Amino acid sequence: MNKRYDSTKQWYAIHTYSGYEEKVAESIRQRAESLDMGDKIFQVLVPKEKMIEIKNGKRKVVEKRIFQGYVLVEMKLSEDAWYIVRNTPNVTGFVGTGTEPTPVSDDEITKIMKRMGREEPKHKFDYRVGEVVNIVDGPFKGFDGAINEIDAQKGKLKVLVSMFGRETPVELDGLQVKRV
């Protein structure tokens, strides 16, 4: 047997065309099932995390791909398993050095799994520090201010509002501001 093949069960990253991650994952699952490869190809994942986006003033939880163009496959790297995965439509190859697929480290997999299973979704802001916003809610409604700090985890912004000739930091919820 070629040194390329490793009969231990490990995770491998495969590269796909961006936007085809779900299709590729489903195709690999179907092919593994129809070709009775359940003993060599175990799990196929598209790493995603939950994020909070604010669209039209409303919070919405969405799933975002963590790595564009990648799918993770837990498998025993045998010639037939490698062939099935490698020849799935829209797969451009395994991640590795040269022609050798390199397993993803346990440490990295643990981090990815933790990120995927995160209960608390992150807020997704499309604001930048220094950007001027208008406060649309709360005691400072009607004031404009420059964003000084962004806390995506809590969904809060610190905005510097000019009052009585001095800058005053005001902590606001992401829904309390809009672009000027």
Describe this structure in words.
The protein is α+β, with helices and mostly antiparallel strands and 180 residues long. It has helices at 21-34, 79-86, 106-116; strands at 6-16, 41-45, 48-55, 58-65, 70-77, 91-94, 96-97, 100-101, 122-124, 132-135, 144-151, 156-163, 166-173, 177-179. Helices cover 18% and strands 46% of the residues. The chain has a 5-stranded antiparallel β-sheet with strand order 13-12-11-10-14, with no helix packed on it. Strands 2-5-1-6 form a 4-stranded antiparallel β-sheet, with helices on one face. It starts with 5 loop residues before the first strand and ends with a strand. The mean pLDDT is 86.
In the CATH hierarchy, the architecture of the largest domain is 2-Layer Sandwich
* CATH fold-level label of the largest domain: Alpha-Beta Plaits
Report the helical percentage. 10-25%
CATH superfamily of the largest domain: NusG, N-terminal domain
Would you spell out the secondary-structure blueprint of this structure?
Elements: E1 6-16, H1 21-34, E2 41-45, E3 48-55, E4 58-65, E5 70-77, H2 79-86, E6 91-94, E7 96-97, E8 100-101, H3 106-116, E9 122-124, E10 132-135, E11 144-151, E12 156-163, E13 166-173, E14 177-179
Parallel strand pairs: 3-9
Antiparallel strand pairs: 1-5, 1-6, 2-5, 3-4, 7-8, 10-11, 10-14, 11-12, 12-13
Briefly summarize what is shown.
The chain is an alpha+beta fold and 180 residues long. It is built from 3 helices and 14 strands.
